[in-house]
Amino acid sequence: MLATPSETEIFDLRTLVGDTLALVELDLQRERAEVAVVVGDNIPPISGVRVELQQVLINLISNAAQAMSASGSSKRLVTIALEAPADADHILISVRDTGTGLAPEAKEKLFKPFFTTKENGMGIGLSICRSTIEARGGTLEGSNHPDGGAIFEIKLPKETASA
User: At 36, which CATH number?
Assistant: First the structure.
């Protein structure tokens, strides 16, 4: 039986990331962005609504590629990392870019509906992403990475993982 978009299912995060990258491949090529995927040890399958998490990843990856392109970054690398720290109660999915990072005024309003830094943006993508993740008991935060660029981190409770 196929899962409907709102049904919870068990899926592999590595497969989800691979499938998501296939969907955004043309966007990444257009923005001349490369992708690195870093997978930690012992990443368990996760229970959730696959299409919801995929939509969040599409938005974060696309935003990263567009931000690097808009800033004129010569090195355009999106790094997607999957981690399941043994001593933590969550699974971490991060999307990092090598752009100029988030301006201080943008960081404060990042997840507010209708706030955008894009010329043609609607300002609802990150707000929807955060609501989607929070509805599943997780968090979504955005900040500047110490080595440059922006990083968005999704934390999902390990209890959504299936051993």
Answer: 3.30.565.10
